[in-house]
Amino acid sequence: MKTVKDVLEAKGNSQIWSISPNASALEAVKLMDDKNVGALLVIDGEKLVGVIAERDIARRLVLKSRSSRDTIVKDIMTSDLYGVPADTEIEKCLMLMTEKRVRHLPVFENDHLVGVISIGNIVKSVILRQDSLIENLQDYILGKYI
User: Fold this and answer.
1) Which DSSP state fits 77?
2) Residue 62, Cα to own-chain centre: how many angstroms?
3) Residues 117, 120: Cα–Cα separation, whole Å
4) What is the mean pLDDT of residues 81-99?
5) What is the C-alpha separation between 7 and 29, in angstroms, rounded?
6) 129 — pLDDT class (breaks 50, 70, 90)
7) 109-124 pLDDT, tens per residue?
8) Cα Rg of the chain (Å, integer)
9) CA 140/CA 143 separation, integer angstroms
């Protein structure tokens, strides 16, 4: 079974994009756009205190007609955090993401933050694994494994 660590390695980019809880929502949107990511970890000093995602901005800012310049990240971020150890199987991550209705999970190894995975990263990994399995089955059926 593939693990979160495998997904992070396949993803390649180990950069963790984060923002201060006191930054403006506009700064968060600009950083997400600049880095082409759907979420940022919210870090206060050395402590992970939340996640701000596009969904948070849409629901807690745009739909409530709040100003992105005047609203700070900590007022619209998700503070209920669900992180996973790097050795977690990806199927368990999918179950957690589905159950908790989240799309991004911080990843920890030895109590240190080592990355973030998205549901898109996991789906890509599952698709690649399925493609490989299909190819192997086709080769077996066609007698290429003699």
Assistant:
1) S
2) 22
3) 8
4) 94
5) 25
6) confident
7) 998 999 999 999 898 8
8) 18
9) 5
Give the model's pLDDT for residue 145.
65
**pLDDT for the residue 10:** 85
Which amino acid, residue 95? M
Whole-angstrom distance, CA of residue 146 vs CA of residue 144: 6
Q: What is the mean pLDDT of residues 13-31?
A: 94
Please tell me the distance from the alpha carbon of residue 3 to that of residue 31, in angstroms, as a whole number. Answer: 28
DSSP 36: T
Cα–Cα distance measured from residue 141 to residue 139, given in angstroms and rounded to the nearest whole number: 6
**Residue, of 15 and 73, whose pLDDT is higher:** 73
Residue 32 has a CB neighbour count (10 Å cut-off) of: 19
30 pLDDT above the threshold of 60: yes
Tell me which CATH code domain 4-119 carries. Answer: 3.10.580.10
Q: Compute CA distances 82 → 50, 58, 127, whole Å.
A: 10, 21, 24
Q: How many CB atoms are located within 10 Å of the residue 49 CB?
A: 16
Q: Side chain identity at 116, as an amino acid letter?
A: V
Q: How many CA atoms within 13 Å lie on the side-chain side of 120? A: 5
Cα(49)–Cα(58) distance, integer angstroms:
20
Copy the structure tokens of residue 99: 């159950």
